[in-house]
């Protein structure tokens, strides 16, 4: 075949082909980046768009060597979704968060930025485009917590969010205060690692949240394997037979369901899996 006779592809179509190939065959993406300098820019933007780091990531140290060798503008430009799982030190997390200033989504299992108040204030200043956040509530409580009485739990930064996951929420807090209008943009909310002690307040909140107009939830997720908690949900009509119940409420046995931990994070890195999908319910 005479390759010189092949027509040039439109620029945007060529870009779409390389980006698709980099996503579909991530192991081949570094080789694709060598085709041409302009292709390298497209492919690297695809490679670094979603970053998963932690014990689940076998290339953690390699990534941080890359972080030291590239200009900070590279990470600010390309990283949009960042998952910091267990295994990333506070020093590493702080270093990464200071350069990834264009995030739209952040999962952070620990708070590397100081007190709860400092954490939210830092996120507000550093990430103007952040709309999705997953955080362990303990990060907001220690050593200097946000005030968690009445409606004062809500930091102004959180009002921007559309998706929020709160892991290990305290059993004593009245979550009804989240429905006071402080989170007008929130459409997806999840609570992780719920126990029997969460039952009364969490069930009251869930019923009220599903009836709320501001915020108006599209999905409300409870993560629990606790039999007492699950039985309480069923008695309240939140889970069980589909007829008559609100299908926006979803109960999952674990964060990764229906995958294993490694399979889940590999799928996230390939953009094939995301937490806020519509999963099979318990």
TrEMBL record:
Q: Which domain of life is it from?
A: Eukaryota
Which InterPro entries does this UniProt record tie to the protein?
Answer: LRR_dom_sf
- What's this protein's name? Uncharacterized protein
């Amino acid at each position: 075949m005479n390759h010189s006779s092949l027509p040039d592809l439109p620029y945007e179509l060529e870009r779409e082909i390389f980006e698709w190939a980099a996503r579909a065959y991530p192991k081949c993406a570094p080789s694709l980046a060598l085709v041409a300098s302009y292709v390298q820019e497209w492919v690297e933007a695809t490679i670094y768009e979603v970053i998963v780091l932690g014990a689940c990531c076998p290339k953690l140290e390699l990534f941080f060597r890359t972080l030291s060798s590239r200009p900070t503008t590279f990470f600010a430009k390309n990283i949009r979704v960042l998952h910091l799982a267990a295994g990333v030190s506070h020093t590493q997390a702080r270093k990464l968060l200071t350069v990834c200033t264009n995030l739209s989504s952040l999962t952070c299992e620990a708070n590397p930025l100081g007190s709860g108040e400092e954490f939210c204030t830092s996120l507000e200043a550093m990430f103007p485009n952040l709309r999705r956040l997953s955080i362990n509530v303990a990060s907001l409580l220690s050593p200097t917590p946000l005030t968690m009485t009445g409606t004062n739990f809500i930091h102004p930064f959180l009002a921007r969010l559309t998706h929020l996951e709160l892991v290990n929420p305290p059993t004593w807090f009245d979550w009804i205060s989240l429905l006071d209008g402080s989170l007008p943009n929130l459409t997806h909310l999840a609570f992780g690692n719920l126990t029997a002690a969460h039952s009364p307040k969490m069930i009251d909140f869930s019923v009220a949240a599903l009836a709320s107009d501001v915020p108006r939830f599209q999905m409300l997720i409870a993560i629990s394997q606790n039999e007492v908690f699950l039985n309480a949900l069923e008695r309240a009509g939140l889970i069980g037979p589909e007829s008559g119940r609100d299908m926006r409420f979803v109960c999952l046995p674990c964060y990764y369901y229906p995958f294993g931990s490694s399979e889940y994070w590999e799928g996230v890195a390939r953009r094939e899996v995301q937490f806020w999908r519509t999963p099979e319910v318990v």
